[in-house]
Amino acid sequence: MHPISLLRPLGLLLAAATLSLAMTGCRIERKPADDPQKASTPAGSFENKSFDPKAEVQAMWDKKALPAISAMAADFPTLKSAMQADLAAAGAKYGHRQQAEGAPWNMAVRLTGKLVEVDTELSAGVANIDVDGDGKADAELQIGPVVRGTTIRDILPFINFTSYTNQIDFAQLANAFNDKAYEEAFKSVDRTKLKGAHVEVLAVFTGDSLDDVPTMTVISIKVLP
């Protein structure tokens, strides 16, 4: 056999041994599950740790937010007629919008009626209220505990995005308003016994008309005897 042919198997064995030793000296490190780099999100990079939305809402709720919403609010039939006659005039009188012309109005309204349907099985529970007595829903009320939307924040004329550090703070403020509204409105109300109840409600909603049943965020609710 040619000497070179004998050397080839020997070379392969040496290479394999060298590779094995190299791998033995290596260690694969795994990052722990709570690795802060893995847990962080893009939003976390912009988080303003000095901002406390809950405390900010608490400070302005009784002194500024509730008086402003109450002052804007119209009875549902009055608001409906006003919106049908002149949406812009109705919005300017009974609501507010954060942006320039063309943005939807945020309205404040008072409703008295019967809750004809109530859904408390979902976390974002809702109740349909019949205002005119025809047995059909005139509005859908968010009864929580999860409350969606930004209407409470956006209807307040003294709240402006430019006063906050970034969009994240502004979004957290809206969530804090929703949490506060739910806490105040339903702290003494048994949501499971609302179906069929006659209620008085102060609420806000965002929309360009009342042609469709609007979804409203409850600011206060009183069960009538």
Features:
single chain; 225 residues; alpha+beta; OB fold (Dihydrolipoamide Acetyltransferase, E2P); 2 domains; 5-stranded mixed β-barrel; 7 helices
Describe what this molecule looks like in 3D.
- This protein is of the alpha+beta class.
- The protein has two domains: 3-39; 50-223, Envelope glycoprotein gp160, DUF2291, alpha/beta domain (OB fold (Dihydrolipoamide Acetyltransferase, E2P)).
- It is built from seven helices and seven strands; from the N terminus they run H-H-H-E-H-H-E-E-E-E-H-H-E-E.
- The protein has helices at residues 3-24, 36-39, 53-72, 76-85, 87-94, 151-155, 167-186; strands at residues 74-75, 95-96, 105-119, 124-130, 139-145, 198-207, 215-223.
- Strands 3-4-5-7-6 form a five-stranded mixed beta barrel.
- The longest helix is centred in the N-terminal third of the chain and has 22 residues, at 3-24.
Beta-strand percentage? 15-25%
As laid out across the biggest beta sheet, the strand order is: 3-4-5-7-6
Could you tell me the mean pLDDT? 83
N-C termini distance: 110 Å
CATH superfamily descriptor of the largest domain: Envelope glycoprotein gp160, DUF2291, alpha/beta domain
Count the helices. How many?
7
For this structure, the CATH topology of the largest domain is OB fold (Dihydrolipoamide Acetyltransferase, E2P)
The radius of gyration is 30 Å
The chain-level structural class is alpha+beta
Annotated CATH architecture of the largest domain? Beta Barrel
The SSE order reads HHHEHHEEEEHHEE
Name of the CATH first level of the largest domain? Mainly Beta
Q: What portion of residues is helical?
A: 25-40%
Overall morphology: globular
Number of domains: 2
Tell me how many strands there are: 7
**Main beta sheet strand tally, sense and closure:** 5 strands, mixed, barrel
